[in-house]
Design a protein that fits this description.
Helix content: over 70%
Mean pLDDT: 91
Radius of gyration: 19 Å
Low-confidence stretches: none
Shape: globular
Strand order of the largest sheet: 1-2
Structural class: mainly alpha
Bound molecules: protoporphyrin IX containing FE
Order of helices and strands: HHHHHHHHEE
Largest sheet: 2 strands, antiparallel
Strand content: under 5%
Number of domains: 1
Length: 229
């Protein structure tokens, strides 16, 4: 018998992500008489949610492998694809909000903020292309069409995708405290940088433990068979 939480996991994740996207759009606009400021708020929030969903989709595999007793394990694994596709959805909204804000001001703002900015945008574009490739090939049919080895090789690109996205956020994201866009006013804080770096370090640790075959079961904590990536 298939449990309801397994069957519903993807629908719940897609539903939750859609509600979050609407809530972000409403909260970005609320109390802002100026469309420009609303777009800045929206692009920042969509970017942060895209990164959070990307990290969640990456952490679920190693987490449930190292701690196999995690409740709702199979539902999480089944829902992982929906988490990744939602990350892509937030990412597209993030890019659309930026394109809208830059086109209504001056398209030259794509490069006038300087080399740091242009490098950050280029990294964002590379990350977006990779996320699109991962999203498009996330269906079971793609594994068959591409062949397991090729599919795995492509999907292992998440290992360099995360540092690319983090570097992108550091080089252009106002909330990461290093740089900010010409239309961003107000102080940055380093909270986002520290929080995302901590979660990324946690993911890396779990991925290493999984690769070395470490599992924490009810009876033991130790190395079993080397787990596949
Ligand atoms: C063509 C692709 C992309 C473009 C043009 C782009 C553009 C931008 C811009 C302009 C900012 C600065 C926002 C601000 O502080 O006002 C930004 C920040 C950010 N972007 Fe992107 N981005 C792209 C791809 C991505 C991807 C693929 C992700 C993640 C999955 C991402 C995640 C972030 C994050 C987390 C921030 C920091 C937001 C903040 O500081 O509040 N971006 N991006």
């Amino acid at each position: 018998m298939v449990l309801w939480n397994f069957r519903w996991s993807r629908k719940v994740i897609y539903g939750g992500a859609s509600v979050a996207a609407v809530a972000i759009s409403v909260s970005a606009k609320s109390g802002q008489p100026d469309v420009g400021q609303a777009l800045v708020n929206a692009r920042q929030l969509f970017g942060l949610w895209a990164l959070a969903f990307l990290l969640a989709s990456m952490i679920l595999g190693p987490l449930t492998s190292v701690f196999p007793w995690v409740p709702l394990r199979s539902s999480f694994m089944y829902g992982r694809r929906a988490v990744g596709v939602s990350a892509l959805g937030f990412c597209i909204l993030h890019v659309l909000a930026y394109c809208w804000s830059v086109l209504r001001r001056d398209w030259r703002e794509l490069f006038t903020p300087g080399a740091l900015w242009v490098t950050g945008l280029a990294l964002g574009l590379i990350a977006l292309i990779d996320m699109l490739a991962l999203g498009v090939t996330s269906r079971d049919a793609s594994v068959k069409a591409m062949g397991g080895r090729k599919w795995k090789k492509l999907h292992r690109s998440v290992y360099w995708l995360l540092p690319v996205v983090l570097l992108h956020a550091v080089l252009v994201g106002a909330d990461f405290g290093v740089n900010h866009g010409p239309d961003v006013h107000g102080e940055a804080d380093y909270g986002c940088l520290i929080a995302f770096l901590c979660v990324s370090a946690g993911w890396m640790l779990l991925a290493i433990l999984r690769r070395r075959g470490w599992r924490w079961t009810a009876t033991a904590w130790g190395r079993g068979q080397r787990a596949p990536l």
